[in-house]
Structure formats: C-alpha cells, structure tokens
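Students often ask what a holo structure prediction actually looks like on paper. The answer is less mysterious than it sounds. You provide the chain, you provide the ligand, and the output is a string of discrete structure tokens encoding the 3D arrangement of the protein together with thymidine-5'-diphospho-beta-D-xylose.
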Amino acid sequence: MRLLVTGGAGFIGANFVRHTVADRPDTTVTVLDALTYAGNRDSLAEVADRIDFVHGDIADLDLVDELVSGVDAVVHFAAESHNDNSLAEPWPFVQTNIVGTYSLLQAVRRYDVRYHHVSTDEVYGDLEPDAPAFTEDSPYNPSSPYSATKASSDLLVRAWTRSFGLRATLSNCSNNYGPYQHVEKFIPRQITNLIDGARPRLYGAGDQVRDWIHVDDHNRAVWDVLERGRTGQTYLIGAEGELDNKTVVRMILAAFGRDEDDFDHVTDRPGHDRRYAIDATLLRTELGWAPHYRDFAAGLAATVRWYRDNESWWRPYKAGAESAYAAAGEQTLGS
Ligand code: NAD
Ligand code: TDX
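The corresponding structure tokens follow.
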C-alpha cells in the first residue's frame, strides 16, 4: 500500500509512521508535514531513509493534489491540536483543521483514494461525572475553538462521503500519552518540569477527568479501521483509562519518588471540559481491537523513562512552551 500520512512529524503521526515502517514492510510511506512549532523531524530520524518526507501545508491544494494522485490511501493526522493555543489564537485552527481538511477531501474525491480521518472525543463536548460514556451516536457539542474546528472537519468528511461517495472512515480517540508528545501537553509538561526541578502545574482544582490511552494502542486501532472499517462509519477509540488530573499528577510525582502533594494549582482553563469518556464497544466487537497497555502506571513509568532518556529531543521546546503559558497569564494559585 502507498500511504500518505499528514502530520507525520507530530506526536501521534510520528509514532504511527515509526511502527508502520517497522511492522509493515509492504507499505510505502510519504509524510506531508508543515513542521509547525509542534512538528519535529527528529521524531522520524530513525526511519528517515525509509520514508519520503514532504515539507508542506495540507491547505496547499496543488501540492496535496499531486501527492494524493500517487497513493492508495491517506491517513490524516495533521492539525493544530492544543486547546490552550486555540484560546489564545483561534485562526490557525480554522485554517489547518477546516481548510486543510477540505483540501485533502477534494483531492481524495478526485482520485478516489481511500481516506481515514483522525479526530478526537472532544467533538462531543464534555460529560457530567456519572453520565454514560460517549458513543458513535453522541451529539456533537464542542466547547473550544480547537474542538469546534475538529468537529467541523468531521462534518466535512461525513458530507463528502454521503454526497460524493468518498471511501472514508473516521475515528475519534480519547487523550493519548507516550513518547514524542510535545512538552506543552499535560503529562510531558509535568514530567519535564520535574526533571528540571520545577513543580507540576495543575489547572484549577484538578478534578477534570480524561480517558487515557497509550499512543500505540490508538495507532493499532487506526490501522484496524483503515484495513477493515466500513465506509462512512465512525469508530470511537478508548481504553477505559478514566482518571482525574490530580490523580495523574500524583502518579507522576510517585514515579519520581516525590511527595504526592508536591504540585501547584494554577489558573484554570476557560471553558475547561469536565470529563471525557469513551465507549469503544463498536471497535472491540466489530474489528476485534483491544488495548495492549492496560496498566496506566506502567505505561506512565515507561513514558517518564523516555523523557529522561531523550532530553535532547524535548529540551529545545521547553522554555518556549513555559513562556507561552506565562504570556497567556497563567498564575500560581497555591499548593
Ligand atoms: P501534534 O500537534 O503533536 O502534531 C500535529 C502535526 O501536524 C505536527 O507535526 C504539525 O507540524 C503538523 N501540522 C500542523 N498544521 C499543519 C498543516 N497546515 N499542514 C501540514 N502539517 C501540519 O498533534 P497530535 O497530538 O499528534 O494529534 C494528531 C491528530 O490526532 C490531530 O488530528 C488531533 O486532533 C488528533 N487527536 C489527538 C489526541 C491527543 O491526545 N493528542 C487525541 C485524539 C485525537
Ligand atoms: O499544565 C497543565 N495542567 C493541567 O492541569 C496542562 C497543559 C493541562 N492540564 C489539564 C487540562 C486537561 O484537563 O490536563 C488535562 C489534559 O490537558 P491537555 O494535555 O492540554 O489535553 P486536552 O485539552 O484534554 O486535549 C488532548 O486530548 C484530546 C489533546 O491535546 C487533544 O489534541 C485531543 O484532541
């Protein structure tokens, strides 16, 4: 299979490309990535001579047309992905997540190329603590500019599939963790703070719940959907990993052998989603997927080791990420 992977220099895309190259020698991979602040070619260094890397924008219609004309399938990871950035400056989210997806859809439509769209559980909004988990039938109700633009892109895919007969599938996954995640995100931020001797920073009271899944389990599900998913179908991806943020911070502190109360409460995120939770019954029963990483503490410990062992990968980004949080007005509220 000749595969075009958008956003392959980002967190999930780079893990996808590395595993695809290692496990699927019959697949040839072209990565299209704009190398924004979130893209890092070092994440692909070990596979650099086994892929084609194209530095470009998914919203570049001519470039996308040319690349899509030469492949059998597209897996679309590229996005502006960070909620906090979308609150500070929404425009890049509209441009990449909506206009960029439009550009890909027009090309796969023209060449009748198989398309898989990678999306997020955040399109469904948030849940009360005791509400049932999201399913494929949950109504769209996004809260932030990030999740609204991801929801918009999903709706474009659904409309293009119905109106133009696209061979498309969608997946909406919960919060990923693992190696190569940008230090702006929750878990890598706290791990790298601790490596630097700083305290973890918890938004508000820290009682928001996220449903954690290891990035490799997400990517195995993407392959299952790409190979065996039904056209037009959405599959929710999640590994029953619900934890509140305060518990996660305490687990990270424990992995460093530190006092579990050794963190700071900081300014809460405006519009902060209360809880996400995924019901992955369809993925499990129809496609036979199951997570390999079932022990979050063990997966977290491996992730801590990875950041300790790969400081040269994240160090160039750390000061900038912390400056962005300070510039956005993040204040320490207390410990
Ligand atoms: P990321 O921010 O780490 O990586 C995004 C990549 O896309 C970067 O390499 C960046 O350079 C590239 N990119 C951005 N704009 C581009 C453009 N206009 N043209 C080409 N490339 C561009 O994101 P991630 O966490 O790896 O997320 C990947 C996808 O998975 C996104 O679609 C995101 O919405 C979705 N998702 C993420 C999570 C999560 O927990 N991180 C969960 C569910 C779904
Ligand atoms: O320093 C922090 N302290 C903190 O308490 C940061 C950066 C975050 N948080 C909280 C906010 C969230 O409740 O931790 C939780 C996770 O935050 P993020 O890592 O920013 O993730 P989230 O907003 O939940 O979105 C993530 O999962 C869904 C990804 O960034 C999205 O791309 C994906 O769609």
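The first helix runs from residue 11 to 23.
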